[in-house]
Amino acid sequence: MNTSFYNKLSFAILIAGSLFLTSCGSSSGGGEEDVFEFKSSDLTNKYWYSSTFIDDSYSKNDVVLVYKFNGGGDLYKQEFSGRRDVKVGSWSLGDDNTLVIDDETIINSQEWKIDKSSTRDHIFLKSTIGNRDFYTQINELNDVTADASVVKEVYLKNDDFVSGYRYDFEVKGDNIKSAVAKISSNESFTLIKSQNSNDETVWRINEVDANEYLENFPGEKLVKFVLTMNSGEEYKLDEKIYNQDIEALSFQSVDSEHTTGSDALSLVVKWKALDAGNIYYYVQVLNSEKDENNPLFTSNWQPASADALQSMTLEEDSKGDFGLSLEDNFYVKVVAFLYEDGIDPFQGDIYTFNIQARSQFIKAGGEW
User: Fold this and answer.
1) DSSP H helical ranges for the chain
2) Using CA of residue 345, residue 294, residue 155, residue 225, what is the dihedral sign?
3) What residues have CB less than 8 Å from 122, skipping those under 6 apart?
4) Which domains does the chain possess?
5) Fewer CB in a 10 Å sphere around the end CB: N or C, the chain?
6) Would you call 208 exposed, middle or buried from its count of C-beta atoms within 10 A (0-12, 13-18, 19+)?
């Protein structure tokens, strides 16, 4: 699906009042307008997507908009980057095909006329302030997710271990050509293409930017991702970093031991638990270059136990599974993390793109 024509046509009018939001859905197809009828059931039980990309600036309100019209009149908006639904108001459909959207995140309710050219997968909305298109899917965004988080890392500075903050980003999608993360009008990060330990393509912060630390917790931020796809289309997604800090890992307590020999090997990692609730952990094996963007192995997550000393055993299923040969140097990365508000990993799906904050320490593991 190509949205370029609609973007240019609609936003020549919409720029003057771009803080409106919309969505809708479907049609009876054909016939005169006086017999056209769009039913509420044509709207419900679907996500409706609209992209009205203007440019790559942080200030423009042109992110991908996603609405879900629930039966009973409840209106939900999805933070598309993290696929999280939030109830934001109500909606109604009149007999004259007028869709009223009362989105509490917008000052005024919106009233739209559903054009008779609409279908079950595409609705064309008209109003006095402009037009807008919604689709039940935008194909090249089907597998796209984008996560932004704050990392508190213990690192070496002037021969002493200190802790500092930095941003981390993880964007996934098979059709992405380039990705940029913007945290303000003046600060952005061009992400690089890398490979995670599941052989998935991931766009991450580069090594230079990852080593730029902040002394103080940066607080709540609205991050905007600008994506250019292989098709040439551009999209903007937003993602919220919450105002929730995390303490530093005790680097003195991180220890690792590994077996050696000609068979499948194992690695035992131990560390001191953080003194906070709802903390989860995972461990990564990194290569001799300490390359975080291309980890050799990533464990499953585990919740904190009641023990002050946490432990995890990583085992190869067969020789060489971790991508290490005997006598190769490697690093161990221990990560403690918090999920975003409202995410319960024990209920429903578990998403790595719903992480709020991380605390981590990387230590040399020796020779494999």
Assistant:
1) 4-14, 207-210
2) negative
3) 25, 26, 133, 134, 135, 136
4) 40-137 (2.40.128.280), 141-145+164-241 (2.60.40), 254-367 (2.60.40)
5) N
6) exposed
**Side chain identity, residue 317:** D
Is residue 276 classed as helix, strand or coil in its secondary structure?
coil
Question: Which DSSP string do the residues of 98-165 spell out, in sequence order?
Answer: EEEEEETTSSS-EEEEEPTT--SSEEEEEETTEEEEEES--GGGTT-EEEEEEEEEEEEETTEEEEEE
Q: Residue 59: which residues within 8 A CB-CB, separation 6 or more?
A: 185
Residue 6 contacts by C-beta under 8 Å, 6 or more apart in sequence? Answer: 52, 131, 133
Q: Cβ(18)–Cβ(142) under 8 Å?
A: no
Structure tokens at 281: 């952990």
Q: How many CA atoms, within 13 angstroms, populate the side-chain half-sphere of residue 133?
A: 22
User: How many angstroms separate the Cα of 60 from the Cα of each of 6, 50, 63?
Assistant: 17, 15, 8
Q: CA geometry: angle at 123 spanning 120 and 125, to 5°?
A: 155
pTM to 2 decimal places: 0.81
Q: Starting at the edge strand that comes first in sequence, how are the strands of the sheet with 266-272 ordered?
A: 255-258, 266-272, 309-315
Q: Is the pLDDT of residue 29 over 90?
A: no
50-86 tens-digit pLDDT: 998 999 999 998 999 999 999 889 999 988 777 778 8
